[in-house]
């Protein structure tokens, strides 16, 4: 089961007592939701004849390449599922989503730091803890790095390109992850997994 903890740790309890009187007790519990594990499987095949021929050329290991490509395919499929889950607005209540369609960070008048801080505050108000990770799409990260508000913050501190670690420090977030994965459809057209 997936454990879910209640909000007991955030409640205010009357813990005051007189000397010698009984202490009050609190109990913290959890609830569980059922879940199911799925299993994915792929085989990377290399004909023996191809392996034999490739072994005559230095630096070519078709077996290793087959394993790496197969693992890459499985990892990409998992990331696509994770991105679909994370990007689905129906998975969030109304307090945890903001429509930024009209506030594109490529527009010089929009401030991505302000938008993100609004989201951070919504998370803190809802769960009682600060957000510790920010996930940006590759396009969102590129737009944020070039936004004048962000560039201004780093103008006098660094000549380097703005990195995810620098954005994390600017926003006081533990980690900024950039979703750079791409997938190809049946027509071999590439698209960004994270939007």
UniProtKB/TrEMBL annotation:
InterPro entries reported in the protein's UniProt record: Lambda_capsid_assembly
Gene3D superfamilies in UniProt: phage-related protein like domain
Name of the protein: Major capsid protein
Organism ancestry: Bacteria, Pseudomonadati, Pseudomonadota, Gammaproteobacteria, Cellvibrionales
